[in-house]
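Deliverable D5.2: sample structural annotation.
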Amino acid sequence: MRRALSCLLLTLTLSSPAAFAARAAQEMREPPPIPVSENISQDQARKAIHAAVEKHGWVIDRESPGHSEAAVVSGSHVVRVDIAYETRLIQINYLDSQEMSFERRHNVRYIHPKYMKWTRTLAEDIDEQIQLIAAAKPQAAKK
């Protein structure tokens, strides 16, 4: 009986919304920087970012030289990132979110694991677009 009561108490505790949120949050990891070859201009990098952003329903909501801020909405979840592009690197950085269990504990950031999945996919798509532009450059030069 005591064991059954302990199991019931554990089940109720783990099924509570607060426990789910705590369980769901993981240490935040930004995707690694995306290398950009020297034959890609900043404007081409910006175009690659736009193409990748649109592919998965992200929206560019603010731009400045070398930066695009993008957001994605999935149900009640919202994520906003800064996509910084310099001469040889593109980096995705967290700006803010809603309903993503974001918190900072002891100077470590935690967030729902979907953040890492979404930003990793975005980074992979940006890299793919950069590679397509780089591959097209030599062919364009031959014409």
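Annotation notes: Strands lie at 26-27, 34-35, 59-64, 67-74, 77-85, 89-98, 103-105, 108-111. The two ends are 81 Å apart (CA to CA).
The annotation will be released with the project's public dataset once the embargo ends.
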